[in-house]
Amino acid sequence: MILSIARFLFLIIEVVVLFNLLIAVHELGHFLAAKWRGLFIEQFGIWFGKPLWQKKINGVLYSIGSIPAGGFVKLPQLAPMDIIEGEADVDREKLPPISALDKIIVALAGPVFSLLLALVFACIVWAVGRPVGESDVTTTIGYVMPDSSAAKVGLRPGDKILAVDGNKVSRFLGMNDSVSWNVVRSEGKTVLVEFERGGKVQTVQVVPYKPTSTGWRRQGTRQLLIMPAESAVIEKVEPKTPAAAAGLKQHDVVAGYNNIPIYSPIALAQYIDKHPTEELTLNVQRGKQALAVRVKPVLLPTEGKMKARIGIGWDTDGKTFIGHPNPFEQVYKSVTGTLETLGAVASPKSDVKLQHMSGPIGIGHIYYLLFENERGWQLALWFSVILNVNLAILNMLPIPVLDGGHIVLAILESIRRKPINIRILEYVQTGCAVMIIGYICYVSFFDIGDFFGSKGEPDLPKPTPAAVRP
Questions:
Q1: What's the pTM value of the predicted model, to 2 decimals?
Q2: Three-state secondary structure along 330-397?
Q3: Closest CA to 126 of 414, 439, 447, 378
Q4: Is the dihedral of CA 314, 319, 320, 321 positive or negative?
């Protein structure tokens, strides 16, 4: 119990440290640019709330707050940010004016530093590697839900998907060129799937399934009710079961049964469900050995009831290896993925809405789940590349309060050849800040809903030991 609590607290600390590092580096970019351009810097703070420590050095108040939620730089000459940073202690109108170019440079420095940090993380990932699952390197179908539209048009396990809606795909899950993302972002009544079977290329039109959600859960997005192919790797052999008696071992790979190849552990579990008393021959790969192992299911306790099984549990990760992706490719894919997401959100025909974005709670939850993994620190570094790119691009949106808004206002100022009225700017900045804070609260509402799972999902088996344990 004590170890569990200590592990939980350690995971929380890891999340807080890494999340705050991303924000602090972004703000450091603004700070250093402001120093370079000679702006008046009132305060540079890490965290918000009541200061735990503060000290004035060379006219700048440095502080550490009590709420671990990022940081800020008070630059009264740039734009009024009182609603977020608190009221300025100086009269802005008495400060010397700064040029539009200075404002643009200072505003741009934050996103630039976020991109540089993304590249640093990407270089670390390139050096130490990150776990790569089979869904990252295959577009082969492993499972098709019975009676789904995909099944009705003839898609089968073993089919290799080549393109979705005309977009070439190179992996099953994730962003950019994946099967799942191109289904989610599709906008037609049907999804065009091009696939290869037995060396022959075919195309089918699939009606996507869209799960319904209620209450505080996000609306479901399109899916084809298919799963990627993954190796059936045995993680555990239960004692005194047919699997143990037949000599099956941990790390054995079940390639098929009765000389029928399988592309997902779910296939074997479903076959046993339909043939609970039938002896079958498992085609097993043990290292370089190919074995034929005969087993007969028996009734075994499973989640409070008796069920026909042979007594094995699967490795839910399937086969994994350590990849070393090119750092520039990581950043490029993060940039294109973010831009594609924004495009999908902006499209009125898309199922991707603002509610599908994640706020601080959702991002923290993702980090927590990543750190729970045995190689979680590598996954967290990889995710930090994506998150830094997101932070840079979203901050460049032309909305006052955001860095892009500061740049737009500076450009307007240069065109008008005079600063924008400070009172008008205060109202605009405050209104936009309230809007952004409101949006963060809105999306956090759905982030919290994610902790309780989702309703309205199809009864699609998940490759977990409890769900598909034969």
A1: 0.83
A2: HHHHHHHHHHHHHHHHHCCCCCCCHHHCCCHHHHHHHHHHHHHCCCHHHHHHHHHHHHHHHHHHHHCC
A3: 378
A4: positive
- Mean pLDDT is lowest, of 169-178, 240-249, 299-308, 407-416, for 299-308
Coil, strand or helix: which one is 14? helix
Interatomic CA distance for residues 262 and 255, integer angstroms: 6
Burial class (CB in 10 A: 0-12, 13-18, 19+), 410: buried
| Residue where the block lists tokens 């601080």 | 360
- Report the C-alpha gap between 350 and 372 in whole angstroms: 33
Q: Which tokens is 391 given?
A: 């932070």
Position 57 pLDDT exceeds 80: yes
- Residue 441: CB atoms within 10 A of its CB come to 10
Q: Enumerate residues 6+ apart whose C-beta is below 8 A from 264.
A: 142, 143, 157, 227, 229, 230, 232, 463
- Position 464 pLDDT exceeds 70: no
Domains of the chain: 2-125+379-450 (no CATH), 132-229+321-358 (2.30.42.10), 232-310 (2.30.42.10)
C-beta separation of 157 from 144 below 8 A = yes
Q: Which two tokens stand for residue 408?
A: 């737009």
Tokens of 155: 């898609």
Distance of CA 164 to the CA centre of its chain: 21
